[in-house]
Amino acid sequence: MCEKCSPRTIGRRGLLAGGLALAAAPLLASSAFAQTSPAAPVSPDEALKRLVEGNARYVANKPLNVDHSADRVMRSRGQRPFAAIVACSDSRVVPELVFDQGPGELFIVRVAGNFINEDGLASLEFGAAVLGVKLVVVLGHTSCGAVEATITSIRDKTLPPGHLPSLVNALRPAVYDAMRSNPSDLLAAATAQNAKLNAKLAESTTPILSAQAATGNLKSAAAVYDIGTGKVSFL
């Protein structure tokens, strides 16, 4: 056995080198994950740009994200979504498809009527403070049944059964706001106003979201998805 390879000559220096190599293994794995995933946006504006470009691909039926098995093992090691989407529970609204983003890129909060309640705020706080999302998009959509039900409830001065009144009450402010201008299409106006009100809430709620917004690390945007055309219009 050569003298350099003898166990007696490994000593402290060899053990230190081996320890450093073992310690570096997780970092190398993280580096590999970063290289095989899309680069995380460095600003809220870049995050918005990615969503706009993705929706354009969706409308043109030219998506990039068609292989959802790619990087599955890497995703099991963690997540780093660049944007949060507050979407309606409507089965026709699928944010990952609408914005042509792959698994792990969007942090989705869903509830019928796409409003933000206490649970939604907590989820968005987690997304911003822990996962590092840069943008919150409140995404309304055409022909929203939740908003339409709220309009009917107000006009008929009735409440729906079960737990549905809590949903209607959450959407009332947007409907009342829209009614003041007597729009020709109250459903469309209320849907847009609901997205705007909740987008404002997403970056003004203290302490976490407002602090992120104040430093420029987080922005919010309101948008409406047209189910018929696939296009997302930012308001």
Overview of this protein structure:
This protein has two domains: 36 residues; 195 residues, 3-Layer(aba) Sandwich (Beta-carbonic Anhydrase, Chain A), CATH 3.40.1050. With 235 residues, the protein is of the alpha/beta class. It has a five-stranded mixed β-sheet with strand order 2-1-3-4-5, with helices on both faces. The N terminus is likely disordered. Helices cover 52% and strands 11% of the residues. It has nine helices and five strands; from the N terminus they run αααβαβαβααααββ.
Distance between the termini: 75 Å
- How many structurally independent domains? 2
If you compute it from the alpha carbons, what radius of gyration comes out, rounded to the nearest whole angstrom? 24 Å
Count of helical stretches: 9
The multimeric state of the shown protein is single chain
Largest sheet, spatial ordering of strands: 2-1-3-4-5
Features:
235 residues, alpha/beta, 2 domains, 5-stranded mixed β-sheet, 9 helices, 5 strands, disordered N terminus
Topology:
Elements: H1 7-36, H2 44-59, H3 72-75, E1 83-87, H4 95-98, E2 106-110, H5 118-131, E3 135-141, H6 145-156, H7 164-179, H8 186-204, H9 208-214, E4 219-225, E5 232-234
Parallel strand pairs: 1-2, 1-3, 3-4
Antiparallel strand pairs: 4-5
Helix pairs in contact: 6-7, 7-8
In short:
With 235 residues, the protein is α/β, with parallel strands linked by helices.
